[in-house]
Amino acid sequence: MPRLALTLGCWNYDRTQALADGRVQPDGIDLNFLAMPVEETFFRMLRHREFDVAELSLSSYCVTLGRDPPPFVAIPVFPSRCFRHGSIFVNADAGIRAPRDLAGRRVGCPEYQMSAPVWIRGVLADDHGLPVDAVRYVTGGEEAPGRDEKVRLDLPPNIVVERIGADRTLAKMLADGEIDALYTARAPSTFRSRPDRVARLFPDFKTVERDYFRRTGVFPIMHTIAIRREVYDANRWIAQSLAKAFAESQRLAYADLSETAASKVMLPWLAAGVEEAVHEMGADWWPYGFARNRATLEVFLRYHHEQGLSKRRLDPEELFAAETLEGYVV
Q1: Could you give the angle at which helices 205-216 and 270-281 cross, rounded to 10 degrees?
Q2: Are residues 249 and 308 in the same domain?
Q3: What pTM was computed for the model?
Q4: What is the pLDDT at residue 328?
Q5: Given pLDDT bands bounded at 50, 70 and 90, which one contains residue 7?
Q6: Of the candidates 216, 247, 276, which is a domain's last residue?
Q7: How far apart are CA 203 and CA 168, in angstroms?
Q8: The pLDDT of residue 330
Q9: DSSP output for 221-279
Q10: Around 322, how many Cα atoms within 13 Å sit in the side-chain half-sphere?
């Protein structure tokens, strides 16, 4: 029988490389892998549904579940995860030494609904007593002007979000003191070009993030894999086929990271980093699948609702194709 041709938009991660180069092929699928930056993938999928399958911001995907009908269905594969304490930047002259000092300030984020700021706002509220509505949010392009929210938002009145001018950037505004802080996924260019003006809120962020994981067991999820709903409805079997293939591609990436004869990654002390990750987080430190991620997803969905991005608190089971909620056991 002919294989089903599907196009996947996804970044070229180590954990997806085997899908990109064809070493792993999903059962019954002829996969056209388009490697592109995540912002482009998100925009093209959310605005125009250009791909059959795509990497999506977890937050953006959850926003789409409020539509009738929801345009996508996800599988419990998480190509991007990141602790975000190191993604909070402040103006060095703003007098911000601790999270409580952010109260009443103007805080930039490229998009209010981005997954990284969702996690940052939630962690600052849970662990540091900074309510989500204690700051005024400023959105727009970080390095280039003109960025808009990729999905339409309907926020409660206590959440104040303002747009920056069409010719301005958040990176420059932070260095110039026009905003006091920045919650972002990418370090602003001014963190390096103007280090006297831009600093991290948590300079020793790795220690803070390790402590956070030890206390909570949460390794924040940034992105998931979403299928256009009409494609999924016509071919329900592809959810499991894709989930299995992503897991196999990840398994090969784990093996490459563990190779000590000759490092496959240009990172000094890679072996030490792998050993540290295993010690702190277990051998499968970047878990896919529903069961092992349920608790982390519950935290994220609580944040999503508390921050006005979902009208009700979603249950983790609502996010994924039903066929992928239980693991396949031989």
Answers
A1: 30
A2: yes
A3: 0.97
A4: 59
A5: very high
A6: 216
A7: 27
A8: 46
A9: B-EEEEEEHHHHHH-TTHHHHHHHHHHHHHHHHHHHHH--SS-SSS-TTHHHHHHHHHH
A10: 2
Q: Of 216, 236, 268, which residue constitutes the final position of a domain?
A: 216
Residue 2 to residue 28: CA distance in whole angstroms: 8
Range of the domain at 190: 85-216
Secondary-structure breakdown of the chain: helix, strand, coil percentages, each rounded to the nearest 5? 40, 15, 45
Q: What is the mean pLDDT of residues 290-312?
A: 98
Count of alpha carbons within 13 angstroms of residue 311, beta-carbon side: 6
**Domain count for the chain:** 2
Instruction: Give me the percent of the chain exceeding a pLDDT of 70.
Output: 98
Give me the chain's average pLDDT, please: 97
User: How many angstroms separate the CA atoms of 173 and 30, rounded?
Assistant: 46
The tokens of 317 are what? 């089971």
Which pLDDT score, from 0 to 100, does residue 261 have?
94
Hey, what long-range contacts does 293-298 have (CB within 8 A, 24 or more apart)? Answer: 293/76, 293/78, 293/221, 295/217, 295/218, 296/217, 296/218, 296/219, 296/220, 296/221, 297/221
Query: Which among 317, 281, 280, 261 is positioned nearest to 65, based on CA atoms?
Result: 317
Distance (Å, rounded) from C-alpha 221 to C-alpha 134?
25
